[in-house]
Amino acid sequence: MSDTISEPVHVIGGGLAGSEAAWQAARMGVPAVLHEMRPERETDAHKTDGLAELVCSNSFRSDDAENNAVGLLHEEMRRAGSVIMRAADAHKLPAGGALAVDRDGFSEAVTASLEAEPLITVERGEVKGPPPEDWSNVIIATGPLTSPDLSAAVRGLTDDDGLAFFDAIAPIVYKETIDFDTCWFQSRYDKAGPGGTGADYINCPLDRDQYYAFIDALIAGDKTEFKEWEDTPYFDGCLPIEVMAERGIETLRHGPMKPVGLTNPHNPQVKAYAIVQLRQDNALGTLYNMVGFQTKLKYAEQTRVFRSIPGLENAQFARLGGLHRNTFINSPKLLDRSLRLKAEPRLRFAGQITGVEGYVESAAIGLLAGRYAAAERLGLPISAPPETTAFGALIEHITGGHLIADEGKSRSFQPMNVNFGLFPPIDAPKTIDGKRIKGKQRAIERKRAYTRRALSDLDGWLGAARAAAE
Ligand SMILES: Cc1cc2nc3c(=O)[nH]c(=O)nc-3n(C[C@H](O)[C@H](O)[C@H](O)COP(=O)(O)OP(=O)(O)OC[C@H]3O[C@@H](n4cnc5c(N)ncnc54)[C@H](O)[C@@H]3O)c2cc1C
Description:
By secondary structure, this protein is an alpha+beta fold. Helix content is 33%, strand content 16%. The strands form four sheets. The protein has a six-stranded mixed β-sheet with strand order 6-2-1-7-17-16, covered by helices on one side. The protein has a six-stranded antiparallel β-sheet with strand order 10-11-12-13-9-14. A hairpin with a 6-residue loop joins strand 12 and strand 13. Helix 3 (69-79) runs parallel beside helix 13. The protein is globular. The structure holds flavin-adenine dinucleotide. The site of flavin-adenine dinucleotide has 33 residues, from helix 2, strand 2 and helix 11.
């Protein structure tokens, strides 16, 4: 082994992302040191000293690789030799179409695999400050509960809005499910703004009765509680919508639902009493977020209450709202396409701290970061997965696909699960006699077209990476 290759990749954090990253580097022949602070220092959610501990649910969500974006991501990870998927498959429990796992068996299997891998050294202990200068190739995968000292160090490496400690998530809707017989495109006062056209928002009008009924439903809706260690992280600029509603029945009409500067082309003589606005969220233009609608309402309540908004009766949500303790960086601004910190390229980020959401997504970004770091060590070109794959769609979202908007104190970049709205759009295939497939079947065929294209492109990418390594 040459001197350069004997120098390890240092992976900080032995969670879902860090474990996968170390594994991938080792599979490519590059040594990795995995630094995990537990059991020396605990987090508020972890309960064991195992690697890749699942802190809450034991589900990896849908395992349907043909019709579901996270099922597709499972399959892509399996094809890329993921240790996380191997352990999950070996410890799966009956759960219908979902992949649920025995959490202890799963974590023990990941720990055993990594400890048995000669190129991986697991070092227990907290990395407190900026990674030492002589670590030339580092992956920071310390997750939503990154220790305070390392968080402070990361903040020092970025800028004021570089690191967030809570997410404040507004729901995101698939544009194609919005009813444009009711809604319309217009920016307030037709202002174009930087890069805008004057018609950048989708507007949903409410009359007086609809508005009052909506406020009542918000206040009455079931909310999720904060964990006792989360404190209540309300800060100006991103109050949950239901908290604003509780402050007075007209409060939202003077805030995110104000009806001014907008004219409904479907009914120009009638002024709306309140308006919900949605703003484009991704460069592809497939996803729109509900402006100012961060919320602690339970998911089922969100779907019910938000579908009472005119024009959103049939809305499908790519992401529902939330507000949680979470540590994540402003990746679209700070990271390059290979997940390196632009300001200090020896440092890569992986996992939930990059602004993906969920066990599987975190592990997937770990998988890519591990491969990128190892490729760099080996002097190989870093090739990003095609954006038509679930891997590529996620990377694209965190490093470029999301459109950053100025929202005062709250950042527009918020964590995201994988979903088909992040993929370049594709038409549903036609019938053999060239006709459009209609109704529900069309949506099904479209998903299958996404997943077929993804897996075929993934195989090409993996094949090219194998050839480059030989
Ligand atoms: C309370 C809670 C519940 C969640 N529930 C779910 C859920 O049900 N389903 C789901 O899909 N996602 C859930 N998530 C979101 C997320 O997917 C998981 O947190 C996931 O584990 C993230 O993977 P990760 O590898 O980025 O971070 P983690 O799995 O948290 O791994 C990070 C590791 O870094 C270690 N670490 C932190 N700081 C340091 C340091 N300075 N030095 C060394 N080691 C350090 C930690 O001990 C930890 O082992 C939840 C998150 C939280 C906070």
